[in-house]
Amino acid sequence: MVKQKMDKIEIRGIEIFAKHGVLPEENALGQKFLISASLFLDTGKAGMSDELSDSVNYAEVAAFLKEEASQKVFRLLEALAEHLAKKVLLSFPLVEKIRITIEKPWAPIGIPLDTVSVSVKRGWHELYLGIGSNMGEKRKNIEEAIRLLSEDEETKVLRVSELIMTKPVGYTEQDDFLNGALQVKTLRSPERFLDRIGEIEKVLKRERKIHWGPRTIDIDILLYDEEIIQTERLVIPHREMLKRRFVLEPLSEIAPYAVHPVTGKRVEELLAALEE
Question: What is the pTM of this model?
Fold first, then answer.
């Protein structure tokens, strides 16, 4: 995960007439809104080629935003901004991040004001996952989990490592594991991605009866951007990954230069240290 400075395309003040708002009269009569968007992407290729196909057509984005903001009524500007950010990221593949600002100059709050606005910044996140199975048809279980991940419109599976067979750790009275690693892009936050993992494990009938016990599928978030997270539900980077060859070996295959944000070391260095 190497930080790359992104370029920016600005679209300011798209004027629309829509019926967003909490009050009944806002939904009935409508009012003016102004939408601005900052698109973050790499424009280097377009700068060299001078071809529009190598960049994002801001006229198309502006028309897209106007249409999306006019089709559905939202009570809150926050919800409208979230909707627009997600739709642009899903519809324009070159856009890595976006900032959406929505202004409401005629907000009916009973006192004079220039405008009210809401601004959100959203984007694609890079994840690395550990995946494994030691029950039933192990390879089929993993392939099905990857398929379910790919079916989520907010998630893209980019790379899948070779699968390796390893001995169980902790509770050893169980079958060997088939393990691998995935590189993923997602619009989901860490908590929402964890929810998605839970849904997949439920579909594949994972049961949590014994700690480190047998399971049809096991999916762990190893790295999420360069985030360091410690909550009751979630610890990122994964707390056991530094000790586990079955994690570091497949991860090193697809992301040898990914950096562990706590140790500051590359995955290939962590694997080499573990093997020593």
Answer: 0.88
